Amino acid sequence: xxxxxxxSIHIATQCLGGAGLERRWRHVQAVGARAHQLCFAVADxxxxxxxxxxxxxxxxxxxxxxxxxxxxxxxxxxxxxxxLPRRVTALVAHHTGARFEAARRGLAAELxxxxxxxxxxxxxxxxxxxxxxxxxxxxxxxxxxxxxLTRYAPDSPVHQAIAEGRQLLLAAVERVDARVRHPETGASxxxxxxxxxxxxxxxxxxxxxxxxRKRT
Length: 216
What we know:
Layout: H1 4-16, H2 22-37, H3 47-56, H4 71-82, H5 86-94, H6 98-104, H7 108-111, H8 120-130, H9 141-151, H10 157-181, E1 198-199, E2 207-208
Antiparallel strand pairs: 1-2
């Protein structure tokens, strides 16, 4: 099968790289790069899945794909149609607390058709999304959440969902922070895969000086 990450970047470029979605596209590209940095927070055999899901997490905003108003669900359904692995599509479906928004849009049952996983992979995807701003700039998770709550009106399903899920989302970022800074304590991270150089960064998660996927 074609390399999963290359395939995902190609799909994301087709869906979001055109005119009219420049800001969203900058965000997605930066989230993809952020996921690459966070690879040390997941097992070696899950790194490509993380990066692929990061590149694809917002394809549901493409006008030709958006149907329900819940971009994570629309994106996952599209990715199913084009043949992405089910684990990638499920991560896209549930990314960044999508279940809270689904409940407010009356789409909880539809979203539940995709298995929701809890663990390092889902945490890392949430962290990549929440530590990149809407124009692709690095931000803290707290800043990102505050920006979303300001951008969407209080009666918006997005505002309400983020407000409800805020503590769970921040907890996911904190877990990734712990895994990246102290990989020896995280069973999900393979032995010997700790970061070579870790320092504070604007996202609140240690940034890896020379992070990269392990290719086998």
